[in-house]
Amino acid sequence: MKRIATVSLAGCFGCHMSLLDIDERIIDLMKLVEFDRTPLNDLKSFTRRCDIGLIEGSCCNEENVATLREFRRQCDTLVGVGQCAIMGGLPVMRNAIMHSDDPLLECLEEAYLNSRLVYNPTNDMPNDPALPLLLDKVYICSQVVKIDYVIPGCPPSGDLLWSVLTALINGTPITTPPGGVKYD
Ligand code: SF4
Question: How does residue 139 score in pLDDT terms, banded at 50, 70 and 90?
Fold first, then answer.
């Protein structure tokens, strides 16, 4: 039986929700695979090496990078799921903020101090030492590790996820289902 691990880096969990859109086929999936580390079972570390790792989201902080590298080490096949993993999606929009000498500070000040939608009477910015360090910019997964396959969409449809997953599990050619790639 194949083992699958999944993770959400800088993503919204929409791609994970889409996995649940395979509906009753999830029963068939459970006959084909065991889930290792994944938010679906709340397992936060690998119990053993996996055949397939599904990555949602891109890398915006040091924890994302460490997690992605661990997935690369622990998974035979690594799959980028959704636009955030493949192209950066919404998180990568912060890379467009680069008007000053310190784009990261400018981005934080926009988010927590300067935006007209912000209510922050203390002018505090997140500074808890437990918070992972932000990267200078957002990096897509393939800029950090080798990605073997990508499943495009925002989120990819349940049908597309099912099609790719069963092909990878069974070692058969990947086909695009009717409806193809969608961006909701
Ligand atoms: Fe969410 Fe879309 Fe990014 Fe998936 S690709 S994590 S659904 S924003």
Answer: very high
| Ligand 1, CB within 6 Å, residue ranges | 11-12, 14-15, 56-57, 82-84, 89-90, 154-155
- The preferred substitution site among 84, 90, 138, 157 for testing ligand 1, maximizing ligand atoms within 8 Å of CB, is 84
Torsion of CA 119, 124, 126, 127, to 10 degrees: 180
- Domain ranges in the chain? 2-92+135-170
pTM: 0.92
Q: Using pLDDT thresholds of 50, 70 and 90, give the confidence band for residue 174.
A: confident
Which of the listed residues 6, 7, 15 should we mutate to test ligand 1's pocket, taking the one with most ligand atoms within 8 A of CB? Answer: 15
d(CA 138, ligand 1 centre) in Å: 15
pLDDT of residue 86: 97
The domain over range 2-92+135-170 is classified in CATH as 3.40.50.700 = yes
